[in-house]
Amino acid sequence: MFFRGGGFKSCKSLLTSASHRIINSLHFGLETDIIPPMRVLLIYSNQSRELVPAPPVGLSYVASATRAAGHEVELLDLAFSRNLERDLAAAVAEYAPDVVGLSIRNIDNVILQRFESPRAALLAQIKIIRESAAGKDGKPVPLVLGGPAISILAERAIEVFGADYAVVGEGEAAFPALVSALGRGEALDGISGLCWRKDGVLTRNRTRLLPKFAHSGMEDWVAWDSYQKNGGTWSLQTKRGCPMRCSYCAYPLIEGRRSRQRAPGEVVDEIERVLRETKAQSKTSPRTFEFVDSTFNVPSSHAMAICEEIIRRKVKAKFTTMGLNPRDVPPALLPLMKRAGFNSVMITPEAGCAAMLQNYCKGFTMADVETTLERVKASGLKSMWFFMLGAPGETLETCAETIRFAQERLTGRMFLSVFFTGIRLYPDTLLARQAIERGYLQADADLAETVFYVSPEVNEQQVIDLVNAAIVKNPCIVHAAEGGASNPQKVLYRVLHALGVAPPYWRFLPEMLSFPPLHFLRSRNPAVRAGATS
Fold first, then answer.
1. Does residue 15 have a pLDDT over 60?
2. Is the pTM here over 0.85, yes or no?
3. What CATH code is carried by the domain that includes residue 319?
């Protein structure tokens, strides 16, 4: 019931006619002489609900490319399974794959005071896969890990999860190449980003970025109804790679620093195709598309060209983005986004004071943040702002300055401000190196294990108390550790969906949080305390 891609017997993956394979090889840049095809099962088990359910856009790229290479592919989406382990075991046993790929999106929830990790659940899933998927020799079939978390952990992921292979970086070329090599018994040394044991020694091949990429084909793999009922937005990439050098960010480990942009017309082609095909499949098209680029508006010229193409074609949909960067917000950008159908934006200044913007290496100033604020306000778009407290150089004074910015400047029901106290350290980031240089972290520390940085110059509880005090004065401030989706929030989301309102539904949280009884309860009963909990 959770499979997509054409069903067990009539799989679209068996469409291996010469014309089909040539067309797809040109699209994905893949070899097409696959004899015989392998049965591939790709698994997505992410059930995180921190904001909205995240559909498997990355795994869809891999599924589409692997099918284009001539293999038989199924994508098992367990995002809404009510008994994940039972459904996983049944699906693996029924499909009998030759190779299994498991996508891992998150290492943890990056919230110190409400810490949650999927590791135990993932290990249980891997145990089921190992027991349920066996080859003709009775041995477990190859297990390949991919996804953002794996690109961060790299070869360490093989030890952490007990897998055979892991793919660092973009998987749509590497994974089909690995499947084909395994089927033919060929060497693995040339496969981009592959982590594996060569002669018993953990090895990591050099990662090569794809020169270009196109659409994900997610409409072929995902049953959209469940995502939409839960407030989901359709994920869409217009570019890969991030040229920014933020000290804490692991994004370049996933997609590199070089920005590779898709043509605006091609992006809008994808939007129109998704609207058309999802409606034909289930009579339910996405109400909102979310541009999930790390920085949608860097450069702003590319973002504006996409908006202009949407307007020119009169596309009937709403849009949002997780990555509006204050570095490049010209006067025309936000009005153009509003005309194109944007109903909201997420903004990531991370700090509301000049000193910490510099420490985070954000690449913009408080003047840029203020300009962005004024232009967002003038546009009428709802916005969510993200702030982090506790980086190197943070003091109680800089914390107070950032919190005061949100409290006094991000007021009213157009704004939602989210604070994180403590910053997750990721391997190979500037922040991790700074933590080692400052004696906060041992040089050989294993960052596959969760480590948070909290500046020695601040007291964690005092910082949380400052956030709680700001909530009293501005109810549209939340601490990330306050909890996942509350019961009132779930009810609100269900009502909005039933009324046909376009997501994302977080844009209605300021109204909910400003409701006097709820504001009174939050003001009198702070939900966050210092220290990690699970």
1. no
2. yes
3. 3.80.30.20
